[in-house]
Specification:
Elements: H1 3-9, H2 15-24, H3 28-35, H4 42-68, H5 73-87, H6 91-107, H7 112-125, H8 127-137, H9 142-157, H10 162-199, H11 204-214, H12 216-232, H13 234-239, H14 247-281, H15 290-344, H16 346-355, E1 356-357, E2 362-363
Antiparallel strand pairs: 1-2
Helix pairs in contact: 4-5, 4-8, 4-10, 6-7, 7-8, 7-15, 8-15, 9-10, 10-11, 10-12, 10-14, 12-14, 14-15, 15-16
Length: 364
């Protein structure tokens, strides 16, 4: 047999591999696939999904106290609660997440592209971990969507026209998103900065005071990014004005807008945090961990972007169909009116036709 056959039969790669192959009757490829199977039961996967949803809900609610007072007991409660839901997941998924995280962080030492490439590899090879990113992100979409719908309904009750309702909805969504993203950004920045200052020799109180002060910049950046994202993302596709142009083009634009908004929400506060940490330790670069963040954000925001694109495309098609139908009805009404006029006043109609053709709008 050739080298490939030897490998598949477990005979390639030296004596150790040959011995292993003969002991379990499997080739190296079979053992490789066995070692990389997820290994969770359906019950464990469902329980993990429930825990991930709970973690996402907890994170969304905890954004508010993290914005106002990240060192408070209430903010600490939500942080501990997030840790609880992560710890409550199966050992299988926790081990996989930990292993991937270590490999991604190690790749980050070689720069943005290296880390991003490793992250893509990890999540491509383990769809269960990719699904976890989607699940934990879902609850964060609810506040902005709910606020946009409430603003739209309130606008309709006040008698606003469709354009004003759309503007109110997207502006409210943007403001809500700004608060949520600013809170998440400040909470994450506070934790990173506090640890960095302690590592540099500051006392716990000094580290806390400095982290409270310096986490304001990431919060401001995150809030601005959140507002922009809320104005151009899924909320706009659902409640904003219908885009002009072709349906497919509008759908692609909406999907890209949602994805760009999500990337803006995550990457810009991370850069601001890196800047603040780097001012103190002198070694943290602006792009540290951005490769990982970009890939994980793309995965988590993927379903939302697809929904945004599909909704926008559907709305544009419906709007176009409605406009075409209205035009047809108007033309039919004109034709019917002309026909009735000609039937009732044939002589007058004939004389008028010599001077002006009502059907074409042109003089004859």
């Amino acid at each position: 047999m050739g080298l490939l056959d030897d490998f598949l039969d477990g005979k390639g790669g030296g004596a150790a591999n040959s011995a292993a192959g003969s002991s379990d009757g499997k080739g190296q490829l079979d053992r490789f696939l066995d070692a990389n199977k997820p290994g969770r039961t359906i019950g464990q996967a469902l329980a993990d999904t429930g825990g991930q949803l709970a973690e996402g809900v907890n994170t969304a609610i905890g954004a508010v106290p993290s914005l106002v007072a990240p060192s408070s007991g209430l903010a600490g409660f939500f942080k501990n609660n997030a840790d609880y839901w992560r710890d409550a997941q199966s050992e299988n998924i926790k081990q996989r997440v930990e292993g991937s995280s270590q490999r991604i962080e190690e790749a980050g030492k070689d720069g943005f592209l290296s880390q991003a490439g490793q992250a893509v590899k990890e999540y491509w090879n383990d769809p269960g971990q990719a699904a976890r990113l989607v699940t934990t992100n879902l609850p964060s979409m609810i506040p902005g969507l709910a606020a946009a719908k409430a603003a739209q309904v309130a606008g309709a009750a006040r008698g606003l026209n469709a354009v004003a309702q759309a503007t109110a909805a997207t502006t409210t969504a943007g403001a809500t998103n700004a608060v949520m993203n600013a809170g998440g950004a400040r909470g994450d920045a506070y934790e990173s900065l506090q640890k960095a200052y302690v590592d540099q020799g500051a006392t716990p109180q000094q580290a806390e005071d400095a982290a409270l002060r310096d986490s304001m910049l990431p919060a401001a950046v995150g809030g601005l990014a959140g507002f922009v994202s809320g104005k151009v993302g899924l909320e706009r596709a659902l409640f904003g004005q219908v885009a002009k142009g072709g349906a497919t083009r509008a759908g692609i634009g909406s999907a890209l807008g949602e994805m760009a908004g999500e990337q803006l929400e995550e990457l810009t506060p991370q850069v601001a945090t890196n800047y603040q940490v780097g001012r103190g330790d002198g070694k943290t670069g602006l792009t540290d961990s951005l490769g990982r963040t970009a890939v994980e954000t793309a995965i988590g925001a993927g379903p939302g972007a697809l929904v945004s694109g599909a909704v926008e495309r559907s709305r544009v098609k419906s709007e176009g169909a409605a406009e075409a139908q209205a035009a047809q009805q108007a033309q039919a009404a004109i034709t019917d009116a002309n026909a009735r006029s000609e039937a009732i006043y044939p002589n007058a109609w004939a004389a008028n036709q010599q001077a002006f053709d009502l059907r074409t709008g042109e003089r004859v």
